[in-house]
Amino acid sequence: MAWFYLLIAGALEVVWAFSMKQSQGFTRLVPSAVTLVAMTASFGLLAVAMRSLPLGTAYTIWTGIGAVGAFAVGVLFLGEQLSAMRVLAAVLIVAGLVLMKVSASE
User: Fold this and answer.
1) How many domains does one find in the chain?
2) Per-residue pLDDT at 103
3) From the centroid of its chain, how far is CA 89?
4) Which parts of the chain span the membrane according to its record (predicted)?
5) Is it the case that residue 38 has pLDDT exceeding 80?
């Protein structure tokens, strides 16, 4: 169950990063509220996952999901640059996440 909570926490990190961008520096009410709610839920689920997962593993997976997810959302919905180097960087992050997950099983 801890891994499920961690995945949801990571997805919520993507939500709050996107909504923070949409809030235009917390000057728009609805995106600002979404940011705060998603951020609180993300941190809360991360804390629950950390009850049984190692700190390094949980935090790395959480931030990795957020980083790669925010990159994907930026490209897909915000028109951010898509280049071979940026894709390679995202692939390397995902490879690191897989290695972190595999090493946590030992």
Assistant:
1) 1
2) 83
3) 15
4) 33-50, 57-78, 84-104
5) yes
